[in-house]
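Sync notes, pocket subgroup
Present: LS, DG
LS reminded everyone that the earlier model was apo-only. Rerun requested with zinc ion included. Inputs:
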Amino acid sequence: MKILISGGAGFIGSAVAERLAADGHDVRLLDNLSPQVHGKDGRRSFSLSRARASGRLVVGDVTSAEDWHRCLGDVTHVLHLAAETGTGQSMYSVGRYCEANVAGTATLLDILRNTEHQVSRVVVASSRAVYGEGAAHCPRHGTVYPHGRRIQDMEQGLFAPPCPICQVATTPEPTLEEARLRPNSIYAVTKLAQEQLIMTACPALDIEAVALRYQNVYGPGQSLVNPYTGILSIFAVAMLSEQPINVFEDGAETRDFVYIDDVVEATNAALFADKVNGHIVNVGSGRPTSVVQIVGLLAAALGVEPRYRVSGDFRVGDIRHNWADISKAARLFHYEPTWAVDAGISRFARWVQDELEQYIQSGGSYDAALDELRQHGLLHRSR
Ligand SMILES: NC(=O)c1ccc[n+]([C@@H]2O[C@H](COP(=O)([O-])OP(=O)(O)OC[C@H]3O[C@@H](n4cnc5c(N)ncnc54)[C@H](O)[C@@H]3O)[C@@H](O)[C@H]2O)c1
Ligand SMILES: [Zn+2]
């Protein structure tokens, strides 16, 4: 098969590319090598090196029809991953996020509509962000989809989202694909738009389409310099530079951390499995992990004392809980995550240490490595 991965030099794209190349596929990558993700010149970007070793990289932008044309050729499968990915950043860079994520996807679809091509399937990366707050259980109303939380409640340390009908505190539940969608950032809105553009346009073009709602993906290859995404990168770098971590709320907020190898497996299935056409599918670990647990596991894996403060601070609009019900992926393509979070975090921690080690061996000092990370704003994240 000939597969084109947009955003293929990034974390998930390069990991999938490596797998596809190992399986003997012809892999092409379209990526604009965003400095926010890859650093100033990309020379030390792990994911970019992994991508280069796995396929032919075309440096270009998904908002340019010409750049798509340069790599579409006789491609049979498109994995559309290119995106701006910072949730917080999206709130003050609305045009930039809509341009890359929404207009970029529209550009691909216009090409598929208006030119000759061989594309038979498109897989698009969506996100857990489309749900906003995850599903919850109310003792009276069963499964409910809470609204955003009230500032006055959070100021009093009441962090559990109330039932939208009776206002009683809820307990979290895994979120199914048919859950209410309530994107709560511009990033989330653009991910939902990407998903819906692909799922609406492709059937009319007689192209198969699958959308994967990735949960919090982590592992070797995630950007260590992008200060706008990746809680594990941010925490790891803070820990290694002995910066205390500010744990928001009471630290019991949860997310679904899914290891990159499991995501590669699911993505590979979405590209090639039968009977997946038209499906929107959660890809996660299927388990919640709290932020305090993550801090403890990561500190242990890095061999440092966990220095953190549970501050009670909160960000307006943040969600409390979200983890995926992954039974649909299991049903559709036998997806079964194999990485427990402690094993995944150990592997990730070892990789972070190797990355810094290599940098030091290549003539840089540990302090210089941290300085560079500081310049990228990473070390100022925790107050
Ligand atoms: N990592 C996660 O936890 C996660 C969770 C949910 C969804 N996703 C989605 O998965 C996809 C891949 O995420 P990732 O973690 O690999 O991110 P990443 O930042 O590592 O990779 C994205 C890649 O896209 C490239 N890119 C950005 N804008 C582009 C443009 N206009 N034209 C061409 N290339 C462009 C970047 O240079 C980068 O290499 C994204 O669509 C993201 O929204 C990721
Ligand atoms: Zn209720």
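DG: The two ends are 49 Å apart (CA to CA).
LS: The chain is about 40% helix and 15% strand.
Action: DG to write up.
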